[in-house]
Design a protein that fits this description.
Elements (H helix, E strand, L loop, with lengths): L1 E3 L22 E6 L12 H4 L7 H7 L6 H20 L3 E3 L10 E2 L4 E2 L8 H4 E4 L2 E4 L15 H9 L3 E4 L19 H4 L16 E4 L2 E4 L7 H10 L5 E4 L14 E5 L2 E4 L15 E4 L23 E2 L4 E5 L3 H9 L3 E5 L2 H4 L9 E6 L8
Parallel strand pairs: 2-3, 7-8, 10-11, 13-14, 16-17
Antiparallel strand pairs: 1-11, 2-18, 4-5, 6-7, 9-10, 12-13, 15-16
Length: about 375
């Protein structure tokens, strides 16, 4: 499926405080997340659809409480070191404001014993051109996650960026399908989220100039994808990537455009590559290096392919993912290995923990 809003040829906009069109143009400014103040989320149907079943006991017992201290502190140390690494390369790094996610909150319809974290700005903020879009996230624990970024977003807006927020969802019980197909949602169309209101995580979208790619997942419904397509400028086209993932949540650990003409793929999760990419070199990621006994609270081991491009040739890769690094090296990329396995416990890697605010480049078609 393609949602086509294109009505005029390629457009070039002057670079401002926010300007990014692809996943690979030279990175100039980025938001890096933090684990400070993070909390264990409440176990519910939306969470159950996306995280390993082994996490249920911890989430049920410790909802609203801090994560195991040693793991959270190790992850924060890696995030701080990563932020320092980017700064050392001349990239402007900003961080979200401190938030205590262990505080309970409620709406008139439901309550939550706490939030989640500010570790993954990619999940929340979709940056397209000079516009930042706040996502209407489907997890109740993430309802107020944007608060940590409010000061940053206000500053970008004051300096000329466009800033919009999708309608905050009600997240009533009818937003979720407790009987969703846990084995083959891609085959049955049965997901944890229904179509009663738009929901999407920004990380279910990836950018290739005038073309964006999105997936239907347990947190992103088709109404959410349609909302994004309608609010983008007319030169953009949104393509839907069909998946075969029983736990779909975030496209950037399965369908990863690295540079013009180069796509990294998790063949166990993606059914078909959209035909507009027929001319691209598509390569399958190797098996991840995460040991079976390494505790991952919120992701699968394949999150290691969640790399970050600093330019068309420079890629940040988790230091222990040597098979992936070797494959990318042989594909013509310069490898920048960074230890990040403790961060991976919490549901993301380099792409997830960043929101690239400015990349040096122009809007163009690359497909």
């Amino acid at each position: 499926m393609t949602v086509d809003r294109r009505s005029r040829p390629d457009t070039t906009r002057p670079a401002g405080p926010v300007s990014t069109y692809t996943e690979w143009d030279p990175l100039e400014e980025v938001i890096v997340g933090t684990m400070r103040g993070a909390a264990v989320p409440q176990w519910d149907v939306a969470v159950e659809s996306c995280v390993p079943a082994s996490a249920r006991e911890l989430f049920t017992r410790s909802a609203g409480q801090p994560w195991p201290r040693a793991h959270a502190e190790a992850a924060e140390a890696e995030l701080d070191a990563f932020a320092g690494f980017l700064t050392s390369r001349g990239i402007v790094v900003t961080r979200p404001d401190p938030v205590d996610h262990t505080r309970s909150f409620s709406t008139p319809r439901w309550s939550s014993p706490g939030g989640l974290y500010s570790a993954m700005p990619r999940d929340l903020l979709l940056v397209v051109g000079d516009m930042i879009i706040e996502s209407p996230m489907a997890w109740r624990s993430r309802y107020f996650e944007a608060d940590a970024y409010h000061r940053l977003l206000t500053d970008y807006f004051r300096r000329g960026a466009r800033w919009i927020a999708a309608p905050r969802p009600l997240l009533d019980d009818d937003t979720f399908d407790a009987g969703f197909d846990r084995e083959t949602p891609f085959a049955t169309g049965s997901y944890a989220t229904t179509e009663v209101e738009p929901t999407f995580d920004a990380a279910d979208f990836t950018r290739c100039g005038t073309d964006l790619f999105a997936q239907r997942s347990h947190v992103t419904n088709r109404l959410g994808i349609e909302w994004v397509a309608r609010h983008l400028d007319p030169e953009y086209t949104v393509h839907i990537v069909e998946t075969i993932d029983p736990y779909p949540m975030h496209i950037d650990a399965s369908f990863v455009p690295l540079a013009p003409g180069k796509l990294l793929l998790n063949r166990n999760k993606v059914k078909d590559v959209p035909s507009v990419l027929d001319a691209w070199d598509v390569r399958v990621a190797p098996e991840p290096a995460v040991p079976d006994d390494f505790e991952l609270y919120m992701s699968s081991p394949t999150v290691g392919m969640n790399v970050l491009m600093l330019s068309e040739t420079q890629v940040v890769v988790e230091a222990q993912e040597t098979a992936l690094a070797d494959m990318l090296d042989g594909w013509g990329f310069d490898i920048l290995p960074i230890p990040f396995r403790n961060v991976m416990r919490f549901g993301g890697c380099f792409h997830c923990v960043t929101a690239d605010v400015r990349r040096r480049g122009e809007l163009r078609s690359v497909v």
